[in-house]
Here is the input.
Amino acid sequence: SAMGALVLVAILAASCGSSASLAGGSKGASAPRDVQEVYSRADLKSGIAGFYDASSGLWEGIWGEHMHHGYYPKGGAKKDHKQAQVDMIEETLSWARAGPPHGKVPRDILDVGCGIGGSSRHIARKFGCRATGVTLSPKQAARGNELALEQGLGLRARFLVADALALPFKRGSFDLVWSMESGEHMPDKKQFVNELVRVCKPGGKLIIVTWCHRDLLKGETALKPKEQRLLRRINQAYFLPAWCSVSDYEKLLATHGMRARTADWTDEIAAFWPAVIGTALRPSGLVGLAKAGLSTARGALVMPLMIRGYQTGLIKFGLLTAESRAASPSGWGSEPSARKLGGRGV
Here is the structure.
């Protein structure tokens, strides 16, 4: 529509006008460590919270309560995209052998980077367990708790604003630790894995589903410059730090004596981004983007770059699962000091 075209032009103009401030980060921010990095850690924290505070309502209005990719089997028929997101949860649990018939029913799950809690509530209903979700966004946490009450899960699902790099839980608190597309936001992947492992009970299951860059080839010490530049442009819009590979996560888990099983589902999510772009370009989507603000609009504008990354083999949709060992190596994952829940953090 003509109105939609005008809105899109306005978004593009605003986005182009803001590129200088994006490239430099905030005043006083520490210098990026490599070409991928755009923001300081402090800027990432505030930027991620603001991005999801602004965009979550728009996403829920169009796509529903699940804020992650959908699952589309290779060569499979087209399906309802909301159902594809539910299928992603189910297929991931099945692949990871979490719960019956492969293992025990989990009693307490932690959803790290929970969005508005779609995965948490689905798993709580499926297994009849207790679910805790943590997010940087106060609006996401509040909305997650509202939906839990509306869906009759107020006593079994709770959502908190907390720091994923210093989780406010005791060691061994959860028998299923779930991270669905949040690892890409973590500026310290080692500490992120340390914390996931720390709060997982001995014998518990750890599941990480995350955007990664490709594994480096033999003889490579870094990604190609053009690949680094593409990731940097994506990082600017989505408030991401430097990326890592699935093999990097495997090595981090190995330091805890955990042998990870991995999978590449890049083909299985290929239909998702074109579908998201299609909804964003509808009149209602364009108006929603304009109302949501500049950071949400920038996220929409780099969606084609995500598709390019997947198509060229640079970006991978990686899965890892591992079982927590009975004992942990000394010197890692010290428990955070007691503090009030709800403090802002990654």
User: Anything to note?
Assistant: Confidence is low (pLDDT under 50) at residues 1-32, 327-346. The chain is about 45% helix and 15% strand. The longest helix spans residues 41-63. The longest strand covers residues 200-213.
